[in-house]
Design a protein that fits this description.
- The relative contact order is 0.16.
- The protein contains one helix and 21 strands.
- It is mainly beta.
- It has one domain.
- Strands 7, 8, 11, 12, 13, 17, 18, 20 and 21 form a nine-stranded mixed β-sheet that branches. Strands 4-5-10-9 form a four-stranded antiparallel β-sheet, with no helix packed on it.
Length: 266
C-alpha cells in the first residue's frame, strides 16, 4: 500500500480518510490482511499508547483500547526504559511491516516517540504523507502539518517517578500504578521541559466524552483515576512549524498509561 494512502496522523478528522482497523483479539490475522480492506472511521483524534499483548509491550496507534491501526515500525523512535530509576537498554523490534514492540529487561517505566511525519491535504481532498513542498502545487495546499506522538507507560507500582525528557510529557506526582479507580492524581504537563499552562488533559483517552482538566500556570492539574485496570491520560499541543514550505504546524499528542490497582490489591 502506498504510504500516501496510509493512515493519517493525529489531529485530523478520520472522516476525511480511510483507516485500516482491526481488533487485538485478531491481531496476527488482521496484520496479515491489513492491506486487503479499508474501513471508514469515526471523527476522533489518533494517539499512541503501550499495550501488553501475549507478553509483549506493543506500540499501539489509533483511538480504541482494544484496536490498533497498522503503521510503519520505523516511525517508532527514541525508546527509553528505566528500572529502579536507572536507565536500561531498550530496543524497538519491528513486527513485520505493520507494528512494533519494545524489548527491555523488566523495566519499571517505558517511553517512546511515534513520528507520524509530514502530512498535507492535496487538491484532491485527500491527505498525503508528504510535506507541502511535495505537492503538485504547494501554493494550493490547504493544510500541512508534522505529526509527532509520545507515550510513557508505568509498568509497576515500585518505579520512582521522573520526567523521561520527551518534548511533550504528562508527569505524575506519584507512581499512578499505586492508585485505585477514583483516587486523586496530580500531574504536570511539560513542553520542552517547561510547565505548559492551559493544556487540556483528558482523564480517559478512550472515552470520547471523558472529562478534561486544564493545567494551571505551573502546568499542574488534578484529576481522578478513571478506570479500574488500564488507564490512558492524554494531552495535545500544537506549535507553529519553522518552515512553512513544509508544514504550518507541529501537532503533538502525549499519553501516560498505567494499570490502576484493583480493590483487592492491597
Amino acid at each position: 500500500m502506498n504510504e500516501s494512502n496510509s493512515h493519517l496522523s493525529l489531529f485530523i478528522e478520520e472522516k476525511e480518510f480511510c483507516m485500516i482497523h482491526f481488533s487485538l483479539r485478531r491481531l496476527p490475522l488482521a496484520l496479515a490482511l491489513a492491506g486487503a480492506g479499508l474501513l471508514a472511521g469515526a471523527a476522533h483524534a489518533h494517539g499512541t499508547w503501550l499495550a501488553h499483548i501475549h507478553g509483549e509491550s506493543t506500540v499501539m496507534y489509533g483511538h480504541e483500547p482494544t484496536d490498533t491501526d497498522a503503521y510503519d515500525p520505523a516511525k517508532v523512535i527514541d525508546a527509553r526504559a528505566f528500572k529502579n530509576g536507572n536507565a536500561v537498554e531498550v530496543k524497538v523490534v519491528p513486527q513485520g511491516k505493520r507494528y512494533a514492540t519494545l524489548e527491555a529487561d523488566k523495566p519499571g517505566v517505558l517511553g517512546y516517540t511515534l513520528r507520524s511525519g509530514f502530512w498535507h491535504k492535496g487538491q484532491d481532498g485527500k491527505w498525503h504523507n508528504q510535506p507541502r513542498s511535495a505537492a503538485a502545487d504547494p501554493a494550493k495546499v490547504e493544510k500541512a502539518l508534522l505529526g509527532v506522538m509520545y507515550s510513557v507507560s508505568y509498568q509497576n507500582a515500585r518505579e520512582p517517578v521522573k520526567p523521561l525528557g520527551y518534548a511533550l510529557e504528562i508527569v505524575p506526582a506519584v507512581n499512578p500504578a499505586k492508585l485505585e479507580q477514583g483516587d486523586k492524581l496530580s500531574v504536570q504537563v511539560l513542553y520542552e521541559g517547561k510547565p505548559l499552562a492551559g493544556a487540556k488533559v483528558s482523564v480517559d483517552f478512550f472515552d470520547h466524552d471523558a472529562d478534561e482538566v486544564t493545567t494551571d500556570a505551573q502546568g499542574r492539574a488534578e484529576l481522578k483515576v478513571a478506570r479500574e485496570g488500564f488507564n490512558a491520560l492524554a494531552v495535545e499541543h500544537s506549535v507553529a512549524h519553522t518552515d512553512k514550505s513544509q508544514a504550518d504546524t507541529v501537532s503533538m499528542m502525549s499519553s501516560l498509561t498505567f494499570e490502576s490497582k484493583h480493590d483487592h490489591d492491597h
